[in-house]
Amino acid sequence: MPTWPRLVLSLVILLAPFSAFAQKCWMVGCAGNIGYLYIPDSQIAVLPETHAVTVNAVSYKLDTSGKLLHEYGLPAVGSVITLNSAAVLLKYKGIEDPSVLKETAKWAYDYDAQGHTASLYQYKIDEALGDAMRGGATLQVLGYVGDRAWGYSHLFALVMVKSD
């Protein structure tokens, strides 16, 4: 193959439009971004001394390794928190997206009746609604929007990304 067709083919490949993927903050940087972080009920209810959950008079040993934040409980406004696992920084309109409402309506725990164990439900929020953040990112809590009922949460923290 002559050189000029290879050059043209290379340019076409380099300049061809491709579908964009959801932004991953840990790849391109999100420090300074402000958005909403879903706060599951389990993040609020699970304290350092929580080792079990009782439902219908049955005790389940609780695995807390899947909690959202390194910290326990509901963080105070102004505090700096660290993500324990990946999460999505939502835009304001994202908190009312039907897929987010459906996901946040789910129970905060997964139970294994035979093993008498429970784990924290891992919420799956679509990264197309915001910026994906990795575990280890630090955020400052600016305020809260929404509400919480035992076992369920529609609470979102307004946060600013300090480091990703």
Description of the molecule:
This protein has 164 residues and is an alpha+beta fold. It has 4 helices and 10 strands; from the N terminus they run H-H-E-H-E-E-E-E-H-E-E-E-E-E. It has a domain at 20-46 and 68-107 and 124-163. The longest helix is centred in the N-terminal third of the chain and has 13 residues, at 3-15. The termini are far apart.
Could you name the ranges where pLDDT drops below 50 across 5 or more consecutive residues?
Answer: 4-23
- Helical fraction: 10-25%
The portion of residues forming beta strands comes to 35-45%
The count of DSSP E runs of length 2 or more, i.e. the number of strands, is: 10
Search tags:
single chain, 164 residues, alpha+beta, four-stranded antiparallel β-sheet
Topology, pairings included?
Blueprint: H1 3-15, H2 25-28, E1 34-39, H3 41-45, E2 52-55, E3 58-63, E4 80-82, E5 87-90, H4 98-104, E6 109-112, E7 117-120, E8 130-133, E9 138-149, E10 152-163
Parallel strand pairs: 3-7
Antiparallel strand pairs: 1-10, 2-3, 4-9, 5-8, 6-7, 9-10
Could you give a quick summary of the protein structure above?
The chain has helices spanning 3-15, 25-28, 41-45, 98-104; strands spanning 34-39, 52-55, 58-63, 80-82, 87-90, 109-112, 117-120, 130-133, 138-149, 152-163. By secondary structure, the chain is of the alpha+beta class.
